[in-house]
Amino acid sequence: QVQVVESGGGLVQAGGSLRLSCAASGRTFSNYAVGWFRQAPGKERQFVAAISWSRRTTYYVDSVKGRFTISGDNAENTVYLQMNSLKPEDTAVYYCAAAWRIGSDSLRQEYPYAYWGQGTQVTVSS
Predict the structure, then answer these.
(1) What CA–CA distances, in Å, run from 93 to 5, 50, 90, 97?
(2) Integer CA distances (angstroms), 64 to 31, 73, 74, 87, in order
(3) Lowest CB count within 10 Å: 25, 62, 79, 84, which one?
(4) Distance (Å, rounded) from C-alpha 32 to C-alpha 50?
């Protein structure tokens, strides 16, 4: 099985940028779809972005389209989430999750993802 570890969170001012990394260990990441989810205090965890196992398809929640970009580097066994133009409402714990070769129609759901990281805190100050 694969283990995933997030990194790159931190405190940033509104309008700033952060790049989150999701690194895989144990197995190659190349056959896993990867999703990013986030959970703000007092709220349910929500889908943010995902990339298919082929790395050809990406999805975003509407609130981050045009600001966030998900990308995969199979050579580095890492998936990135580049976050630009950050807003205070982006403040949350961000989780990376991996799923073996799931279809693109399942990328935005939590249930197919079997492997989850511990999360990384992103705080955007106004």
Answers:
(1) 13, 16, 9, 13
(2) 25, 21, 24, 10
(3) 62
(4) 11
13-60 residue pLDDT tens: 999 999 999 999 888 888 899 999 999 999 999 999 999 999 999 999
Whole-number Å distance between alpha carbons of 5 and 120: 9
Between CA 68 and CA 62 the distance in angstroms is 10
Half-sphere exposure (CA, 13 Å, Cβ side) for 65? 6
Contacts of residue 11, Cβ cutoff 8 Å, sequence gap at least 6: 123, 124, 125
Give the length of the chain: 126
